[in-house]
Design a protein that fits this description.
Elements: E1 2-6, E2 10-11, E3 17-24, E4 33-39, E5 46-52, E6 57-59, E7 67-72, E8 77-82, E9 91-98, E10 102-104, E11 108-112
Parallel strand pairs: 2-11
Antiparallel strand pairs: 1-3, 3-8, 4-5, 4-9, 5-6, 7-8, 9-10, 9-11
């Protein structure tokens, strides 16, 4: 299973961050929970949220008000939207597949700045 994040590297404060994870080697509708995890500079990994293979979504309570995760089954992709971003949302964002095994994307740097 391979995962590849894509999206803008720079986002302005108050805008919406959108990141897409493209999956190969597995169907997002068959197995796994598909998650977004981020790591702010100098801090630990933080789970943002996930979408299950049946389409159920789960969010970190601290981000639930701003985060949404959707999927495009025709493209085998899932997407994170994070609204009203601030510099505290800066970090490396990873997508991950987890079930009996865990697979990670390589991560993508997102900077929130003017």
């Amino acid at each position: 299973v391979q995962l590849q994040e894509s999206g803008p590297g720079l986002v302005q404060p108050s805008q919406t961050l959108s990141l897409t994870c493209t999956v190969s080697g597995a169907s997002i509708t068959t197995d796994y929970y598909w998650s977004w995890i981020r790591q702010p500079p100098g801090k630990e990994l933080e789970w943002v949220g996930a979408i299950g293979y049946l389409g159920s979504v789960y969010y970190n309570p601290s981000l639930k008000r701003r985060a949404s995760i959707s999927r495009d089954t025709s493209k085998n992709q899932f997407t994170l939207h994070l609204t009203s971003v601030t510099p505290e949302d800066t970090g490396v964002y990873f997508c991950r597949a987890s079930w009996q095994r865990t697979y990670w994307g390589q991560g993508t740097q997102v900077t929130v700045s003017t």
